[in-house]
Each structure stands twice: as structure tokens, then as C-alpha cells.
Q: What sequence folds into this?
């Protein structure tokens, strides 16, 4: 069954194996309980059920330029990967804002820090790698160079994507994974890899750079290509830090896993609380971004 195949993978359970010795590995109790429900495809707290029942299951956060009939499933998966925007507190900025890739940006930054930890030369979102190509549309998330066991440095371009393995997150009409007879549990992740390869592989080959589509599931599982890349980064770190590569790889996986589940907990909690409180300002932030909220709410723009 798709659901159990997705969560039984060891990479999907790294956050459950973390001892919260350091602040960045601490998961708030509320977020922890939310993610346990997400993991086992259970209803997210009584509050989300009340939202669905009262509002007729229509998502109030989806942007107007997309279909207005998007629904919210009781498991919260629509909030995680179906809404066009999610809430962002990236790097502890002053106010949360709505962004198309907020969770993606958090995961990307953790991956970048893993590459830096391996003492690799790396850059985040380089704009100058593909000359003559619009950098706002085609630029990888991280560029790094790895040299393992005295092999000459090899350049890598990595692009992160987060996908749900479940069908129906966009519409909110999820197929129950427990009852779905799915032959290919990695079908959606494989499709995401193909899409990334279609976008970047030819460009990277022309620059003699190896391209890595780094795919992470909303259940926490890492796609096989992402695992292989982390193994390379861990091997480089092991050569330079004199720590066994298995320990370093496990450390990197835990960082990525904790980052994702904290984001999931934050998104679901914030959206449910905003829904219940009928906070229209918060709805505006999600639907239209910060610019519109400032234009509407700042008195200096009043006539």
C-alpha cells in the first residue's frame, strides 16, 4: 500500500530518531503531534474537522488565479502540498509572509548548510551558471564541488523539490492510501525527477556539471537519487572531518527531516488557527502575498 511503503522507509522516520540536544533539532509539542497524525494519515486535531464541517471544505487560502473549488482534506495534506502558497518565517524574519516555495526554501537552505559542513565550495541559488538563460526561471538551488578519496573535484548542481506521494492533494479529494492498489509507490517522485531532468540536465551537461534532482516526499522519505547524493557529501565530510561517513549521513538526514516536519507543523497550525479565528488579514497574506496586505492596511496609502 502506498502510504505504508512511503513511511516505512528509514529516511521517512529520521525526525522520530532525533534526540533534541540542540535548539534547531527541537520540535514543538504541537508540531510533533500534528506530524504523527500526518504520518499515519489521521485527522489533524478536532479543529481541522470543525473547519471542514463549517466551511464546506473549501480552502480559503488558495489563490484566486487557481480553481476556487479546492477542498481541504481532514488529514491536512492539502495545506502541505496543495495550496499555492504557504506561510514563511524564513530565518526568523519580522513577520510571516506568503510565498510559493517557503517550505522548499527552508529545505534548500538546510541542504546548502550540509554541503558547507562537508567543507565543500558551494553557492546557494547561483544566478550566473547558465549564461544567456533567464536566471529567474532556470537556476539550480545549490552548486557544489565534491572530491572523494583523492578523486579530482566534480561539480554538482542540485535542485530541490518536495512532492506528495498521494493523489488529490491539490483538489483536497485524497484517495485513501490504505485502500489504494498502487503498483508504483514512487511514481509521483519519479515524475518530479523527470521534470527536473528535462529542465536542467541538458544545460548542466553543456557546462560539464552533474545534475542532481533532490526529491523529498511530504512524508519525509528521500528519493533514491537524493540519498545517493547525501552519501557523496558525507564521504567528503568524512575525509576531512575524520568522522565515519555513516554517522555524518545520518546527521544530514536528521537535519533535513526535522526541518520538513517543523515546516509541516507550522503550516497546518497557522492555517487552521487563521481559519478558525476568521482572520481575514491572514487570509489576505496567504492569498495575495505581502504587497497587497501593505497596500490595503498601511494608512499612508489611504486617500
A:
Amino acid at each position: 500500500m502506498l502510504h505504508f511503503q512511503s513511511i516505512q522507509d528509514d529516511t521517512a522516520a529520521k525526525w522520530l530518531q532525533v534526540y533534541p540536544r540542540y535548539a534547531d533539532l527541537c520540535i514543538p509539542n504541537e508540531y510533533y503531534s500534528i506530524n504523527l497524525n500526518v504520518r499515519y494519515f489521521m485527522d489533524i486535531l478536532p479543529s481541522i474537522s470543525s473547519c471542514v464541517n463549517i466551511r464546506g471544505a473549501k480552502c480559503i487560502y488558495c489563490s484566486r488565479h487557481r480553481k476556487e473549488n479546492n477542498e481541504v482534506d481532514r488529514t491536512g495534506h492539502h495545506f502541505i502540498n496543495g495550496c499555492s502558497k504557504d506561510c514563511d518565517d524564513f530565518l526568523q524574519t519580522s513577520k510571516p509572509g506568503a510565498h510559493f516555495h517557503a517550505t522548499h526554501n527552508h529545505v534548500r537552505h538546510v541542504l546548502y548548510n550540509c554541503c558547507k559542513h562537508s567543507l565543500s565550495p558551494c553557492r546557494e541559488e547561483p544566478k550566473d551558471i547558465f549564461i544567456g538563460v533567464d536566471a529567474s526561471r532556470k537556476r539550480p538551488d545549490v552548486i557544489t564541488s565534491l572530491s572523494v578519496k583523492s578523486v579530482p573535484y566534480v561539480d554538482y548542481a542540485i535542485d530541490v523539490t518536495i512532492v506528495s506521494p498521494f493523489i488529490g492533494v491539490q483538489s483536497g479529494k485524497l484517495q485513501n492510501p490504505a485502500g489504494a492498489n498502487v503498483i508504483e509507490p514512487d511514481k509521483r517522485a519519479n515524475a518530479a525527477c523527470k521534470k527536473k531532468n528535462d529542465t536542467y540536465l541538458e544545460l548542466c551537461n553543456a557546462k560539464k556539471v552533474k545534475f542532481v534532482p533532490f526529491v523529498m516526499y511530504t512524508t519525509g522519505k528521500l528519493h533514491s537519487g537524493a540519498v545517493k547524493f547525501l552519501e557523496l557529501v558525507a564521504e567528503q565530510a568524512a575525509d576531512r572531518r575524520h568522522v565515519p561517513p555513516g554517522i555524518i549521513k545520518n546527521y544530514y538526514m536528521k537535519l533535513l527531516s526535522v526541518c520538513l516536519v517543523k515546516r509541516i507543523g507550522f503550516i497546518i497550525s497557522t492555517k487552521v488557527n487563521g481559519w478558525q479565528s476568521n482572520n481575514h488579514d491572514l487570509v489576505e497574506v496567504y492569498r495575495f502575498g505581502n504587497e497587497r496586505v501593505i497596500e490595503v492596511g498601511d494608512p499612508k496609502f489611504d486617500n
